[in-house]
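#struct-pred
JK: can someone run the complex with flavin-adenine dinucleotide? inputs below
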Amino acid sequence: MSELDETDPFVSRLDAPTLRAARERGGSAVVVGGAMAGLAAAHALRALDWDVVLYERQSYADKRVNCGEAMTDAGSIPLPKTPAYGFANRPPAFEVHVYTGETGARTLAGEGVFPSTDGYVTDRNVVERRWAEQLAEQGVDVRESTGVRKAQFRAFSEEFDLVVDATGQPSMASKVDGTTGEYAGRMTALNADVEGDFSELYPNSRILFENYLGYAWAFPKSETRANVGIGWAEDKLPDDYYAAFVAACERNDWPVPDRSAMNIYTIPRGPSLDPERTWDAERRIARVGDAAGVANRFTGKGISQAVESSYLLAELAARNRLDDYPEELYDRMKNEYRLAYVVRGALEDGRPDILGGVMNAVSGIDVEAVDREPRHAFSRLVRHPVLLAKLAANPTMLSRLLDAYTDDWEYRKTAETPTRS
Ligand SMILES: Cc1cc2nc3c(=O)[nH]c(=O)nc-3n(C[C@H](O)[C@H](O)[C@H](O)COP(=O)(O)OP(=O)(O)OC[C@H]3O[C@@H](n4cnc5c(N)ncnc54)[C@H](O)[C@@H]3O)c2cc1C
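RT: done, structure tokens with the ligand placed:
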């Protein structure tokens, strides 16, 4: 049997009898995709003493991944929080500034400071490489530089008790099923690591809303190095992404990255709320992380969500309740999505005054708690009558609030996807 560390962030979710029974039962799993969601799934299933094979199509030594570098709830990642493991800076807070526009004449419409008790700005490629190394030492069969093809993926259902699809978006399962179009409404983002003077901001991080459907950010890793980026939602992309990124760097006094240093990614609004897609009981395929589309709809933040989805899956495997995965995932994410859906309305409507008011009102709540316990944010809003009056007078916000509370939103509003029963 594999060794068990009872202080491990996944292991501590289970009581001793459940854990013992699960480890005695064992099982086999293939995890396809070895980024944060896949690494978390492999880690948790291995802790249950399952035989785990992990496929990652890139080599960890070469992998260039600098999205998802601000990791909250870092305690769920079982690695020492030191620079050698990629945890570069522990920002005391994330600052959010809301501006009325993106020109020189802009004014500040509101701001929030969100303390971060367990967040880090990371070199994500180092975190992933170190986690994969640790998994290999723990007995996971890590097959890097090995992309899984469709035929192979189909065959996995015959070979393993559980197939974990952690391939990001669009996911392998959707490719196999020909349903990649379900990853709609995405955000496109450009980012890069840059060298420059960040001493004024460091160790904090900053996110800027500048009255377009998206936002920009600076996440310092030290006083002289930071990840900077900008993203736009859905159909509101600029014609020239690079020029728009350069303009954002210039107006915010950040160094302009070289074009060759930039990465471009998309953040999906995936099928996470559709239980029919996150778990295919017949083929024993579960989607986690971005493959399940669990990144936050407003901020695009998806690392803690990815890890949580994988740990939840493994926890249910331990309890012999895998069929409950879609409903449990939906229940965990629902409130976060509700808040994101409502607040996003202010951006879509071009109302920096409302968004700024929301930031002023919710300022001070822990950055991870905004996602995990959005009721705190909602209860803050209720205590601001002027803001409430503005929300009530705005048809977009009102209809979004109503949708959120009647659960009539997200994929249920998308014609081509089935309605949740
Ligand atoms: C620009 C940008 C900035 C972001 N910033 C943040 C942030 O600061 N904080 C945050 O929390 N989130 C952030 N996010 C979101 C976050 O990056 C994602 O939610 C997260 O990466 C999801 O992790 P994942 O493991 O599910 O998927 P991915 O990171 O997409 O990983 C999928 C993995 O699967 C592998 N793979 C794919 N197909 C195959 C195959 N056929 N065979 C084998 N392997 C395969 C890929 O190589 C990849 O390693 C950001 C996103 C973007 C785009």
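RT: quick notes.
The two ends are 42 Å apart (CA to CA).
The first strand starts at residue 28 and ends at 32.
JK: thanks, will look after standup
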